[in-house]
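Appendix B, Record 12. Input sequence as logged:
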Amino acid sequence: MSDEFQEMPEDWTRALAVVAHPDDMEFGAAGAVARWTAAGKTVTYVVASRGEAGIDTMAPEKAAEVREAEQRASAAVVGAAGVEFLDHPDGRIEYSAELRRQFATAIRRHRPELVLGFCHHDHTSTGRWNSPDHRNTGRALLDAVGDAANRWIFPEDGPGPWQGVRYVAISNSPRPTHAVDVGDHIDRAVASLEAHASYLAAMQPPVTDVRGPLLGLAQAMGARFGGRPAIAFELIPR
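Logged structural output:
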């Protein structure tokens, strides 16, 4: 792998981001979304769960309401076109044909050229063991891109096959290959993560500084991107 990141392709107009939980996009990719929407591109979010198991001090039913509202507010900060929730159980998302079907249907409906996902590897970019929700969601998404292109797989769903996905990019990957300059969009990335106020306050210890870690991450990625503050992705060959 080259020591320097390559530029993420930007010859596309529509992107679909598919992740497991509210906040997954904000921990690593929101700055890139802010850059893309500022340039007139369309980015839509699909979230497999409502994150109801993510706040220890809040009952799941209430947490689902709070985290859905925070995710919608967070996505609006960076100009996302909308957020759709699939209501899979937080912490118990399973890889299945049904999960692939739902993702393939979303791809067929939104017809993106770029598909964004969260790390599907056993370990994240931090080196820590990845959660089963992330692994199962990410792997089902990679398979669903092929499913969406095949008219004979899940033929009953969606407006027909979509073979127009040109790029699949994975955030928080331990194997990043490409990057996006987010130097002009740090403020929106920070505000987008800060919109998850209830979730951040309930973490142990509570997260009180968002700007510092996000700026540090962007600067660290920028060391392999010509010194420009950046968000890195693993670009999966198509």
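Residues 49 and 145 are 20 Å apart (CA to CA).
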